[in-house]
Specification:
The structure holds 2 protein chains of 2 kinds. Chain A is an all-alpha fold. Chain A has helices at about 1-10, 10-15, 35-45, 50-70, 75-80, 85-95, 110-130, 140-150, 150-165, 170-195, 205-225. By secondary structure, chain B is mostly helical. In chain B, about 70% of the residues lie in helices and about 0% in strands. Chain B contains 15 helices and no strands. Classes of the chains: A mainly alpha, B mainly alpha. The interface of A and B includes residues 107, 132, 210, 213 and 216 of A. Chain B: One of its GO terms (cellular component) is Golgi membrane. Chain B: InterPro entries: Yip1_dom, Yip5/YIPF1/YIPF2. Chain B: It comes from Perca flavescens. Chain B: It is found in: Golgi apparatus membrane; Golgi apparatus, cis-Golgi network membrane.
Chain lengths: ~230, ~300
């Protein structure tokens, strides 16, 4: 008897809440504050022109580019992730790295697939590493941040190709070295500004080191790129 | 206890030898039981025969008690792998320094790992070493050929793949073979010290840490400097490995001891010298080459 009472006790609070008969239980569950306008907004994407849809996404991507260029520890890059920007940057970088020296030879620079694999698998491994170390960031958020933070390096690659048109002497190498070093520092700084806060304080260095290595290797690929003559 | 006391009282002189035998059996059974018990018990059992490992024991006890018992989770879950990344920055620093500066008589696994082997260090040390070898090999190749008229710089990106294959093979398959071998010997000969697979992987991974500065030194195209750094690195990483695996094979046949320790050393030397020979071209070998062959030099070295 006592046991039965004990068992029923957790629900004692619930039993007090009696739903009176005259309130209908059915109906639609919606927040009364302006649900109609929200729904209209969502539905309106169906009949908007395709151009607007694409432009809206592009604007979101561009917005994130600006966040990478001015890393100020905001969470906008983390809140709604997308992988369009990383894909765009990765393909651009891989295409710019094509046409390198001795392309037919095995000893040449990285091929398109190699760049692609290094960037994606590299960011996946870094993400797994930070998750295994106890990070609170979600998998795709981290991929998104790492992908977007390649932006400075992609810009450096574009600059390097322009410099290489002028010639490939010592001066050109010095300019490329400076540009690549600066963008490598920028990438590392930007990504750690977004990622390091989500880690336990004792493990920040352990998370930052792989990120550093990742951008260092990408920076190395950009710096050693030399066009075929 | 009562059963061993009974023969002791009544058959004092007749079966003294048997009694000794029985006692010996009793101790071995005890050790076996201890081996089955996880963590603390096993640790204490494996520590007692080593007198020189007394120092870390005092500090170990506290950490061991604080860390609490480990849960056993199946290997397909994320938590299983999280165990191997349960380290902090200062642990990694201590482990790297411990592997770079081996101390005579200190067992790396007992002093530094505290029954908590990690995969972070081995994985990222191997990855760093792969890129360090590929990049510094490329730079040294460039420095050797600097000023040659027919030389055209290439990034030699394929070296990354080859270096990755060589180093990850060494860091995973050698521990696997060693672990299997020690397991087999442990069945034959009662051994007080036994290592888990992850501990062996961890020691091998951290023992590669000394090669990273050595490889960076190899950029400078002086053969004597390269050989000096190779010898130093080999000595340091080899002594860590030998001192770690010495207690595990100590009670074995002398032939087996020599075979295991020399295999460990030879594989280590093979990795270091092989990397040096493949990724870093010798200045002497290239200098007398004809100008037309200089362009082909990177593919032949």
């Amino acid at each position: 008897m006592a046991a039965a009472e004990e068992a029923s006790r957790p629900f004692a609070g619930l039993s007090d809440v009696s739903i009176s008969e005259d309130i209908p239980v059915e109906g639609d569950i919606s927040v009364p504050l302006g649900p109609s306008t929200r729904r209209d907004e969502e539905f309106s994407t169906l009949d908007e022109p395709v151009k607007e849809t694409i432009l809206r996404d592009l604007r979101a991507v561009g917005n994130k580019f600006i966040h990478v260029l001015y890393p100020k520890r905001s969470t906008a890059l983390l809140r709604d992730w997308d992988l369009w920007g990383p894909l765009l940057l990765c393909v651009t970088l891989a295409l710019l790295l094509q046409g390198g020296a001795a392309d037919s030879d095995d000893q040449g620079g990285p091929q398109f697939a190699e760049v692609f694999v290094i960037i994606w698998f590299g960011s996946i491994i870094i993400t797994l590493n930070s998750k295994l170390l106890g990070g609170t960031i979600s998998f795709f958020q981290s991929l998104c941040v790492l992908g977007y933070c390649i932006l400075p390096l992609t810009v450096a690659m574009a600059v390097c190709r322009i410099v290489l048109v002028g010639g490939s002497g010592t001066v050109s190498f010095a300019v490329r070295l400076v540009v690549v070093t600066a963008s490598f520092g920028w990438s590392t700084f930007a990504s750690t500004a977004f990622l390091a806060d989500n880690q336990p304080p004792d493990r920040k260095a352990l998370v930052v080191y792989p990120v550093f290595l990742f951008y260092f290797v990408i920076g190395w690929m950009i710096l050693t790129f030399s066009p075929s003559q | 206890m009562a059963s061993t006391n009974d023969p002791f009282q009544f058959q004092e002189f007749e079966e003294a030898g048997n009694l000794l035998e029985a006692n010996r059996d009793a101790t071995t059974i005890n050790i076996e039981e201890d081996d089955i018990k996880p963590d603390k018990q096993r640790k204490a059992a494996s520590f007692t025969p080593d007198g020189d490992d007394e120092d870390p024991l005092a500090s170990d006890d506290k950490t061991e008690l604080l860390s609490g018992p480990k849960k056993s989770v199946p290997f397909w879950t994320f938590e299983y792998y999280q165990r191997f990344f349960d380290i902090e920055t200062h642990h990694v620093k201590e482990r790297i320094i411990g592997s770079v500066l081996p101390w005579p008589g200190k067992n790396y696994i007992h002093v530094h790992l505290h029954r908590n082997p990690d995969l972070y260090g081995p994985f990222w040390i191997c990855t760093t070493l792969v890129f360090a070898i590929a990049i510094s090999g490329n730079i040294s190749n460039f420095l050797v050929h600097l000023g040659k008229p027919n030389y055209k710089y290439t990034p030699e990106f394929r070296k990354v793949t080859i270096a990755a294959t060589a180093i990850f093979t060494y860091a995973w398959f050698v521990p696997l073979a060693l672990w299997g071998f020690l397991l087999w010997r442990n069945n034959k000969i009662m051994n007080l010290v036994s290592y888990s697979f992850m501990e062996i992987v961890c020691v091998y991974g951290y023992s590669l840490a000394i090669y990273i500065p050595a490889v960076v030194l190899w950029i400078i195209p002086f053969e004597w400097l390269r050989w000096c750094s190779i010898v130093v690195a080999l000595f340091l990483s080899g002594s860590v490995l030998v001192m770690t695996f010495w207690p595990a094979v100590r009670d074995d046949h002398p032939k087996v001891i020599i075979a295991v320790l020399s295999a460990i050393t030879v594989l280590n030397i093979l990795l270091a010298v092989g990397c040096k020979a493949y990724f870093f071209s010798k200045p002497e070998a290239v200098l007398p080459a004809a100008a037309t062959e200089v362009t082909k030099a990177p593919s032949s070295t």
